[in-house]
Design brief:
The complex is a heterodimer of chains A (253) and B (419). By secondary structure, chain A is α+β, with helices and mostly antiparallel strands. Chain A contains five helices and 13 strands. The relative contact order of chain A is 0.21. Chain B has two domains: 200 residues, no CATH class; 203 residues, no CATH class. In chain B, a hairpin with a 5-residue loop joins β6 and β7. In chain B, α2 crosses α15, α2 packs antiparallel against α16 and α15 runs antiparallel to α16. Chain B is elongated and about 100 Å long. Classes of the chains: A alpha+beta (253), B alpha+beta (419). Chains A and B meet through loops of A and β2, β3, β6 and β7 of B.
């Protein structure tokens, strides 16, 4: 079970930056593509909390994340104290971890890409993968109307014939009035629900409306979850690619 | 005293104590027959390991670009012209006779993703026409089928891997790996068959896909990462290495034998050999002690006799020589019989293999290779030479001390002994 940071994050951040409401001419694919494109080239700095709940333990990690588009990001853990200073640098397809207690930088080998990032329900590979929703999926509106008192669209994303994606389909619900996503459901090819991502606590941060809280639940282990909460968020912070260096991975506190 | 006479005397002495000689000889015969059998069995099982191990991995010999063995990175592949040269070389008639199968392969470490999981895998882009003669994975199908002509997105995956990724026949999954330019590339695949080899590393982490699919996925055109060569027999390795070695000069490729490409197999064989050496050493020591005992006893019992011989003019050295020859004759004769018996029995009874199936409940694997429960003993010239040398060594070692004792016998003192 895993959580796709890069698939969830663009929805969260980019959806908020769409100024005008959806017009009749825009097709579902265009909306999703716009959301996808909005994410690229965007720089941001966030202070966030990740809470991982598993059968045996629960832990909350506080961290800061600086990112540039979907290619560069630097995440540093602030708390708990035991892990403080631990950092992850992602540049294109490579990930490095820095462990301050042993003062070592480790490049994650391909064999470790499938293992969990910081004990969460997401993998190192989820960090690396860059979303290409429009290239990989055909997008249809599967529902339009009022649901639970809110006017929403429901988009169904079906992978194209030979697209290199694992999902059988993805269904996401977006509020019509402010284009906020409410949930995303991931199905396998048999049509079984594999995981859900839900959004709530919509608030304005960094001048934009975003869902400040999102939770991923793996369906086969419903008592487990990984959730993210944005405490601070800034956009257009003007970082360059050169910011994301191994030196920065080690030094910045 | 002439040599011949000493030998004649030694033989007579042995004959005089027939019962004792026969008992000693029996120890020697059984010991050496056992030694020969055990050597043949070890050789047989090593051959089996090597063949099995090579079959499952990169063959007896693998031809790769320099550095690929170390890095396993796709950018260290054989380019089109190197691939072409290797292909041409493999058509050489001296090679076609000793090669069982030569498989062009594109091997890469990657990640297999499904909605359920993401696991590291060894992906082999293979030629489905050659592979049945090489890895014989097509015989291990538990569900579906092996790769066939016209397959493109079809993948043949290990049973444990399929379970962990929760894949059935027809299920989609994505392979991710670094392509030739270093970019991360994804490839959609669908399960066409599931195999179970009984070898955990393969069952949980190996995938066969069509080589053309692997080439287009990783941007390699006609290139491959290796030509893996399985020989008819391990003994042909030297000839094949010598012939293929020419490619190192002309095309700058690496020609690597199994000892280097499968170091864990090499050390497994070396370790097993070491264990055998210890076992044989103990066997030797016991045989040697038994013979020392017999020969020494025969000297101590015949003190008066030696005294008389000395009194008749036999020199100390000659007395010693006589005892030495007694010991040597006894060991060489009985040793010869032992070796012949060992070879005869092993060949006669177990030439079709020793079946250990009853002792192993399931497929048994070690050092990355499946060990067949049927072991066919094999003889090599080296073993026979080793056995013969060991006879001479035992004979010499066990005769020296008694011979030394025989030289120390004092004529006057010896007369006090009753015979």
């Amino acid at each position: 079970m895993k959580f796709s940071w890069s698939k969830a994050a663009p929805l969260v951040i980019a959806a908020t930056s769409i100024g005008s409401p959806l017009t009749a001419q825009e097709t579902a694919a265009e909306i999703v593509d716009r959301i996808d494109q909005m994410w690229r080239g965007e720089s941001s700095r966030a202070a966030m909390e990740m809470t991982v709940v598993t059968e045996h333990w629960t832990r909350t990690i506080e961290m800061t994340a600086v990112s540039l588009g979907s290619t560069h990001s630097l995440i540093r853990i602030l708390a708990p104290r035991r892990d403080a200073g631990t950092a992850t640098l992602k540049v294109d397809n490579d990930i490095w971890n820095y462990l301050p207690r042993v003062d070592r930088t480790i490049k994650i080998p391909s064999s470790m890409m499938g293992s969990s990032w910081m004990g969460s329900h997401m993998t190192n590979d989820d960090l690396v993968k860059e979303s290409r929703i429009i290239e990989d999926y055909d997008i249809d509106v599967s529902f339009s109307g009022v649901r639970d008192g809110t006017d929403v669209w429901e988009f169904t994303l079906t992978p194209k014939e030979e697209a290199a994606v694992i999902w059988g389909s993805i269904v996401e619900e977006v509020r019509k009035d402010d284009l906020m996503p409410t949930w995303v459901r991931y199905f396998d090819e048999r049509g079984d629900l594999v995981r859900t991502l839900t959004f709530d606590d919509y608030r304005t941060m960094g001048g934009r409306l975003i869902p400040a809280h999102m939770t991923m639940i793996p369906i086969d282990k419903p008592e487990e979850s990984t959730s993210f909460r944005y405490n601070e968020l800034e956009f257009g912070i003007g970082v360059e690619e050169s910011f994301f260096s191994l030196r920065r991975l080690r030094s910045e506190r | 005293m002439p040599f011949g006479l000493l030998i004649k005397l030694a033989l007579r002495n042995l004959r005089r104590q027939m019962r004792r000689s026969i008992l000693t000889a029996a120890a020697m015969i059984i010991g050496l027959a056992l030694l020969v059998f055990s050597l043949a069995l070890a050789e047989g099982s090593h051959q089996d390991w090597i063949k099995g191990g090579s079959r499952m991995a990169s063959g007896h010999i693998t031809i790769q670009a320099p550095d690929f063995l170390r890095t396993k990175k796709i950018r260290h592949h054989l380019d089109v012209s190197q691939t072409e040269s290797v292909r041409r070389m493999l058509e050489d008639t001296t090679l076609t006779d000793i090669i069982e199968a030569a498989s062009p392969r594109l091997t890469i470490l990657g990640l297999a993703n499904s909605p359920a999981n993401a696991l590291p895998v060894l992906v082999l882009g293979v030629d489905h026409r050659i592979e049945p003669f090489f890895s014989q994975l097509n015989e291990k199908v538990v569900e579906g089928r092996y790769l066939e002509e016209g397959d493109r997105l079809q993948a043949f995956v290990g049973k444990t891997l399929a379970e962990r990724l929760r894949l059935d026949i027809g299920s989609r999954f994505v392979l991710t790996a670094q392509d030739a330019s270093g970019e991360m590339a994804g490839q959609l695949m669908r399960v066409v068959g599931i195999f179970s080899l009984g070898l955990p590393s393969a069952d949980q982490g190996m995938i066969h896909i069509p080589i053309t699919t692997a080439q287009s996925w990783l941007g390699l055109e006609e290139s491959v990462t290796s030509f893996d060569i399985l020989l008819e027999s391990t003994e042909a390795e030297e000839v094949a290495m010598a012939t293929l070695g020419a490619l190192e000069e002309t095309d700058g490729v690496d020609v690597i034998g199994w000892r280097e490409s499968l170091p864990e197999l090499n050390s497994a064989v070396a370790m097993d050999n070491f264990g055998n050496y210890i076992f044989h050493g103990i066997l030797f020591a016991i045989i040697t002690l038994a013979i020392v005992n017999t020969v020494l006893m025969s000297v101590l019992q015949r003190v008066r006799e030696f005294g008389v011989l000395r009194a008749l003019g036999l020199r100390r050295r000659e007395a010693g020589m006589m005892v030495f020859f007694e010991g040597m004759l006894l060991t060489v004769l009985s040793g010869g019989i032992g070796i012949t018996l060992g070879i005869g029995l092993t060949w006669g009874l177990f030439r079709n293999g020793l079946d250990f199936t009853a002792l192993m409940d399931t497929d048994f694997s070690a050092a990355g290779t499946i060990i067949s429960p049927i072991i066919v003993p094999q003889f090599t010239a080296g073993q026979i030479i080793a056995a013969v040398l060991s006879i001479v060594t035992i004979g010499a070692l066990s005769s020296i001390y008694p011979a030394y004792r025989a030289t120390k016998i004092d004529v006057a003192e010896s007369m006090k002994f009753e015979t």
